[in-house]
Every structure is written in structure tokens, then in C-alpha cells.
Amino acid sequence: MGEAAGADGIRAYPTGGRSDRIHECLLRTTEELLREGGVPAATVDAIAARSGVSKATIYKHWPCRTALAANAFGRMMADALPLPDTGSASGDLTAQVRQVSAFYASPDGRVFAQLIAACVDDPSGAAYFREYFLADRRRAVAQLWQRAVNRGETRPGIDADTATDLLFGPLIFRLLTNHHPLTEDEADKLTKTTLPALLLAP
Predict the structure, then answer these.
(1) Taking a C-beta distance cutoff of 8 angstroms, is the pair 63, 11 a contact?
(2) Taking a C-beta distance cutoff of 8 angstroms, is the pair 103, 81 a contact?
(3) Which domains does the chain have, with CATH numbers?
(4) Model confidence over 57-75: pLDDT tens digits?
């Protein structure tokens, strides 16, 4: 139903005054349900009942509930993780790793883990997860990294993607496996170990 997806797997949705208001209403409703009960609570039936928008209309905007949940969750995380500006790459990245670790340790982290699990067998939902969560987060960290590059603080040959994976990948692994706590002390251990490989000594 609706428009075919583009090469990135993201489908065009209806736009215009009323359609834009419906789109925003559905995202807000989904955010509420995710906060209340995680991905299992954010069913299309529940979203339709609470928003007053028909299921047929929901499917005109997103191909599946995982796609809608991923879109809504990306907004939730962006709002919860403003970019720090401490004046140094070490300070910025340390603060951001702490923020992300605390986010994953919160109930929102459980929703994130549920979304990852849901996307494993849902290619259309996974495309939205990559675009509205992963890509947005990587763009945000890339801004921090570019500040560091502009100030001459980074080691040559290291790009933002590599730095992002090294700093934040362990947090996701710890969230999914629960083999190590997501505390501020542990977050600081990660940055103290990783940053010397990424940044020049001050």
C-alpha cells in the first residue's frame, strides 16, 4: 500500500497541511506508547485507537509498525541527547558517551534493544531504523568529530565513522548482552581507553 520505497528503503508519504498534521500526531502517539510499554505496546491497533487515525492512513505513512516506532524513537533520542560543547574534543566526546550510556541504562534503552530485535526479521522496519535512528545519531557525533578536526585535535587518518564505532559500539553491546553495567564510571573507562587512540595529546 502507498508509494514504493526508494533505494534507501524509505517510502515517500503524503504531505501537505492535513497530512503533515496527521504524520506529527502519529509520531507523538507512538512516542507515548513506546514510553508506556515499549515496542510491544506500539501496535498499529493501539496507535490508531489513541490517535483517532485509521490503520489504512497509518500504512500510507509507514510500511509497518516497526518503521513508525523507529521513526518515533529516533526523535525521542535526539531530544534526550543534546550535543555537548565543552570547548575540547575530549570533553565533548566524554560527555556524549556518558549521555548515551545513561540513555541506554534508562527504560528508553530497553525500547532501543526491542527495536534492534524487531528489525532483525523486518527489512522495511530496519531501513527506517537506519535512517531515523542510526544515521541521525552518526550525523550528530560527526558534528562533534568535525569540531575536533577543525581544532586540529584528531589523529590523522581517522574518520568520524571509525570514531563513532569505537566509542559507542561497546555501549550497544553492553546493553544487548548485559555483561557489564552502563554506569558513568564505566563510560569514562571506555573514553579514557579509546580517546588516546583517536585524539592527539593536548
Answers:
(1) yes
(2) yes
(3) 74-198 (1.10.357.10)
(4) 999 999 999 999 999 998 8
